[in-house]
Design goal:
The complex is a heterodimer. By secondary structure, chain A is α/β, with parallel strands linked by helices. Chain A has helices spanning about 45-50, 75-80, 95-105, 120-135, 150-165, 180-195, 205-210, 230-235, 235-249; strands spanning about 5-15, 15-30, 30-35, 60-65, 65, 80-85, 170, 200, 215-220, 225-230. Chain A starts with a strand and ends with a helix. Chain B has two domains: about 25-335, ABC transporter involved in vitamin B12 uptake, BtuC (Orthogonal Bundle); about 345-440, no CATH class. In chain B, about 70% of the residues lie in helices and about 0% in strands. Chain B contains 18 helices and four strands. In chain B, helix 5 runs antiparallel to helix 11, helix 9 (about 215-225) packs across helix 11 and helix 12 packs across helix 13. Chain B is globular. Classes of the chains: A alpha/beta, B mainly alpha. At the A-B interface, helix 2, helix 3, helix 4 and helix 5 of A face helix 9, helix 10 and helix 11 of B.
């Protein structure tokens, strides 16, 4: 079985500073994969490389066996990869409904059409409403997204990310800044909407990571020091020293 | 009544409900009312003794129509897509040149085209140049986009004076709209007939632009304006969105230019110049770029100032400028924004309570405006007006601008009115805040 995401010898430098220092990583289809590591380890940078926001310095990244070298973010998205951002990234002046519908448009083949009136696209609108219901945002349907609470905006961003039905989902700290109950709700939501998909998630909350992930990769100073099932990561000496130990202390 | 309004409001805002025939009728009537009103308006100025329309009124109303198309097409870039253009007039003007050349060709018998379709030629010309310039300009966004459009504007303005064949130099291209071919057998020799054509095309263009906002492209233009990076990660190339939006906006600007060629029967260098681009920007800002109809409202204000006040005063451009600055400073949402801010209070059913506070700030406001206008007119009279051999009057009373009295009166009204306004503004704000708090408590903010 081919991998959904496959990294080989990936490096990324900004000027003289090498942020990612030779990462090899395989994520099979359908796996929930979490990436952890101390601040500045390069987790978000790696996300930006996989989603095409940054270009590689060296190495290759393949999605479903296809190299993404030189592709723009929207082209990578069309290959079936969708992502969220560490800092909430939504369309603040559009309503919740329109945010979700914008997430659906390309995937449903509307492209740059200026001859379809969206009001008449019943199937599209119903699909957007169904997703809004799953996100538990029905009450906020017609509110500009910029006016939502923080947790609601995070939920909306997860919604936009999964709306198009991308097969590979990248979530960058989806629960950052949330209260305990909000986090619980967000994890349940993520679990539900990424069912059967390949998920790569960056997260600091260890309860989220160990509760959600099939496999955990630990990134320290731009290198993978361990990649294994949660139980073995917990017992890994190097990980404890480099990361969990300092966190616990 | 307020509960009724809150229930209706969300429905009006969503576009998901399929337009049934009843919904269509409800949405169509404001358009029909507007068209009928536009057709009735010139009759207010009709001279029944000579049985003639007022040429001035018809020209002014035609100008409002074609400039409204222009300003709305400008807002397709600025309001909808967040692209501030400083050279939008090139699309308008080039559309106008295309239309003028086409009419001349038809008149010469070189081609067949009814007058009614000439604005469409202008539109296609605008679309062509929109594709051409859009390819260059939409590679960038934000400030870089603004700079490129400014450069393109200067480029075309320079070309207009260099390439005589197409642009006709400073004299421009003269044309004749009476080309003898019409779909309806109309000669278009009278301003009234031309005005009807302008109304028809304005209605068509405005309706199409309105519908365009509800298409996938229109929505994604909003989305890329709000967050171009997020738009990339839902599969859209923001550059392509900008490009398509720019080209379509060129189409509509060109329709405005085509109407210009028909109304004035001459297209000159002015139609592509920076001042024309600035007019669209002024109209959009004064009316409000946030709402669809804001630029239309702004166009009415700007054209009235341009046509009406320019008859009375040499300083009309100064007034437009001051109005622009005041709007940008105190009402960045424009006139439409000001109206929209009242919506929660209206839904709470307490709009009436604002009447007295409004009178109390408008009175000192009128005083300071009077003082300001008096000072500006005095200054302009001593430099220009006196040379034209006019006499200076305040109302029916002739006043000598060489004496101190009118200057002191102006200064007193401006300063006194300003101080009084500051005093009243405090009370107004308190009243406003209380009403907004009440609207919030009643849950009718959205």
């Amino acid at each position: 079985m081919s991998n959904a995401i496959s990294l080989r010898g990936v490096t990324k430098s900004f000027g003289r500073t090498e942020i990612i220092r030779g990462v090899d990583l395989d994520i099979p289809h359908g796996q929930r994969h979490a990436m952890i590591g101390p601040n500045g380890a390069g987790k978000t940078t790696l996300f930006n490389l996989i989603s095409g926001r940054f270009s590689l310095t060296s190495g290759t990244i393949e999605l479903n066996g296809r190299s993404i070298d030189g592709l723009a973010p929207h082209e990578i998205n069309r290959l079936g990869l969708s992502r969220s951002f560490q800092i909430t990234s939504i369309f603040p002046r559009l309503t919740v409904f329109e945010n979700i519908r914008c997430g659906l448009l390309w995937a449903r083949g509307y492209r740059y059409s200026f001859w379809h009136l969206l009001g008449g696209q019943r199937a599209l609108n119903e699909e957007a409403d169904r997703l809004i219901e799953r996100l538990n945002l029905e009450d906020r349907r017609n509110v500009p997204a910029g006016l939502l609470s923080y947790a609601e905006q995070r939920a909306l961003e997860v919604g936009i990310t999964v709306a198009g039905g991308a097969e590979i989902i990248l979530l960058d700290e989806p629960t950052a800044g949330m209260s305990h109950s909000e986090t619980e709700y967000a994890v349940a939501l993520i679990r539900a909407v990424t069912e059967g998909k390949t998920l790569l998630i960056v997260e600091h909350d260890m309860s989220v990571v160990f509760g959600l992930a099939d496999v955990i990769t630990v990134l320290v100073y731009g290198e993978v020091i361990a990649s294994d099932v949660p139980a073995r990561i917990r017992g890994d000496k190097a990980v404890q020293e480099a990361y969990l130990g300092t966190e616990a202390a | 009544m307020s509960a009724d309004a809150t229930q209706r409001a969300p429905q009006g805002r969503t576009l998901s409900a399929a337009p049934g025939s009843a919904g269509l009728a409800r949405r169509a009537w404001p358009w029909l009312v507007a068209i009928v009103a536009a057709l009735l308006l010139p009759w207010l100025f009709f001279d029944w003794s000579t049985h003639r329309h007022s040429g001035f009124a018809l020209t002014m109303l035609s100008e409002i129509g074609l400039m409204a198309i222009f300003a709305l097409s400008f807002n397709m870039q600025m309001g909808q897509a967040g692209l501030l253009s400083f050279g939008h007039a090139i699309l308008f003007g080039l559309g106008g040149y295309c239309a003028a050349h086409t009419m001349n060709a038809v008149k010469a018998g070189a081609m067949w085209l009814p007058v009614e379709l000439v604005p469409l030629v202008g539109g296609l010309g605008g679309l062509l140049f929109g594709v051409l310039f859009g390819y260059v300009a939409t590679k960038q966004r934000a400030t870089a986009f603004a700079m490129i459009t400014m450069g393109l504007g200067e480029l075309v303005a320079a070309c207009a004076l260099m390439f005589m064949g197409f642009f006709g130099g400073e004299g421009g291209i003269s044309t004749d709209r009476v080309i003898g071919i019409s779909l309806f057998g109309v000669s278009y020799s009278s301003s009234w007939q031309v005005y009807c054509l302008v109304v028809a095309w304005t209605a068509i263009a405005v309706l199409l632009m309105r519908l365009q906002t509800q298409t996938p492209l229109g929505r994604m233009a909003n989305a890329t304006r709000d967050n171009f990076e997020r738009a990339q990660f839902v599969g859209y190339d923001p550059r392509m969105v900008r490009f398509c939006q720019f080209a379509l906006s060129g189409f509509f600007a060109g329709i405005g230019g085509g109407l210009y060629a028909i109304v004035y029967e001459i297209v000159t260098f002015d139609t592509v110049a920076a001042a024309k681009s600035a007019t669209a920007l002024l109209a959009a800002y004064i009316g409000g770029a946030g709402g669809f109809f804001g630029p239309f409202l702004g166009t009415i204000v700007v054209v009235l100032l341009q046509s009406g006040v320019s008859l009375l005063s040499n300083a009309w451009l100064l007034y437009v400028g001051v109005l622009f600055i005041v709007m940008v400073m105190y009402a960045p949402g424009g006139l439409v924004g000001i109206i929209a801010q009242h919506a929660p209070i209206a839904r709470a059913g307490r709009l009436r309570e604002l009447i007295v506070p409004y009178v109390r700030i408008l009175l000192p406001g009128a005083f300071s405006v009077f003082g300001f206008v008096l000072l500006v007119e005095l200054a302009s009279f001593t430099t220009i007006g006196a040379a034209q051999g006019k006499a200076f009057k305040i109302g029916p009373q002739a006043v000598d601008p060489a004496t101190a009295f009118p200057w002191l009166l102006g200064a007193a009204a401006l300063i006194g009115g300003g101080l009084w306004l500051r005093l009243e503004a405090r009370g107004f704000r308190a009243r406003w805040d209380a009403l907004m708090a009440d609207a919030k408590a009643k849950g009718v903010m959205l």
